[in-house]
Design goal:
eleven-stranded antiparallel beta sheet; alpha+beta; outer membrane lipoprotein receptor (LolB), chain A
C-alpha cells in the first residue's frame, strides 16, 4: 500500500533531441544535391525549443487552477483502472476510482490519504511526498520545483521528463505528455523509486468548472461514510 502514493499519484529518461537526422546520400551532382537539401529543409517541421516547451508547460499548469477529467490508469502489474479526477489548487485533489476498484486518493491541501474501501484502511502522507506537484501547486515552475531531465518530441506529443527527489521512498521520474498542437496535458507516467511504473491518460478535460469542495475533505471520525 505504501507504494500506492508513488504509483497512483503519478512515469525512461530520454535523450534531449528534436527532429530527425536526414540520411545522407552521395549526390549525382552539386545541383541535384542542393535541390534535394532545399526540398528536405522545406518539408521538415521546425523543432520546438526546449525552453519554449518548458514555459508552455508552466503556462498550462498555472492557468489550470481547477480541473475535472476522466482518467484511465495502467499500473505496474498491467491492471487497468478508471475513474474521475478532480483538482482545485492549491493542493486539493481527488482520484475517484470506478468499481470494481476499491481505492480512492484525496488531498486536502495539507495531506494526501490513500483509502481502501474494501479493506477499510487509510494511510496519510505529507502532500509534498506526492510526485504530482504539477497538479497541486498554484504556481508551478518546472525548472525550480523539479529537475528537468529531457524535452523531446514524439509523434503527436511533446514529452517533458522530470525527476523529483522529494517523493515518498526516494526519487521518482515523471514523464509529462502534452498535445503537440494545443499543449494541453494528455498523459503522465510515474516511475517510483523501486522502478515500478504507472501510466495515466486523461480525457474529457474541463478547466472551467470548479469541483465541489466537499470532494477534498478527508474523513476522520467516520472514514467510510459517503461524501456529501
Amino acid at each position: 500500500m505504501k507504494r500506492g502514493v508513488a504509483l497512483v499519484c503519478g512515469g525512461l529518461i530520454l535523450q534531449l533531441a528534436f527532429g530527425a537526422a536526414l540520411a545522407q546520400k552521395a549526390p549525382t551532382s552539386a545541383k541535384a544535391s542542393n535541390s534535394k537539401n532545399a526540398e528536405q529543409s522545406k518539408s521538415s517541421p521546425e523543432a520546438l525549443d526546449p525552453q519554449v516547451a518548458i514555459q508552455m508547460a508552466n503556462d498550462f499548469f498555472n492557468a489550470a487552477q481547477v480541473m475535472t477529467a476522466d482518467f484511465v490508469q495502467v499500473g505496474a502489474d498491467g491492471r487497468r483502472a478508471e475513474g474521475k479526477l478532480y483538482v482545485a489548487k492549491p493542493g486539493r485533489l481527488r482520484f475517484e476510482y470506478a468499481e470494481p476498484a476499491t481505492m480512492e486518493i484525496i488531498a486536502d491541501g495539507t495531506s494526501v490519504v490513500v483509502r481502501d474501501r474494501k479493506l477499510k484502511t487509510q494511510e496519510i502522507y505529507f502532500i509534498g511526498q506526492t510526485p504530482l506537484k504539477f497538479l497541486l501547486k498554484s504556481n508551478i515552475n518546472l525548472q525550480r520545483d523539479v529537475k528537468i531531465l529531457s524535452v523531446a518530441e514524439e509523434k503527436a506529443f511533446t514529452i517533458i521528463t522530470v525527476e523529483d527527489s522529494a517523493t515518498f521512498g526516494g526519487t521518482s521520474t515523471i514523464k509529462l505528455f502534452f498535445d503537440g498542437k494545443s499543449f494541453s496535458l494528455k498523459q503522465w507516467q510515474v516511475t517510483d523509486p523501486q522502478g515500478y511504473q504507472t501510466f495515466v491518460t486523461i480525457h474529457n478535460l474541463d478547466l472551467n468548472t470548479a469541483p465541489n469542495p466537499n470532494l477534498f475533505k478527508i474523513p476522520s471520525d467516520a472514514p467510510w461514510g459517503s461524501q456529501n
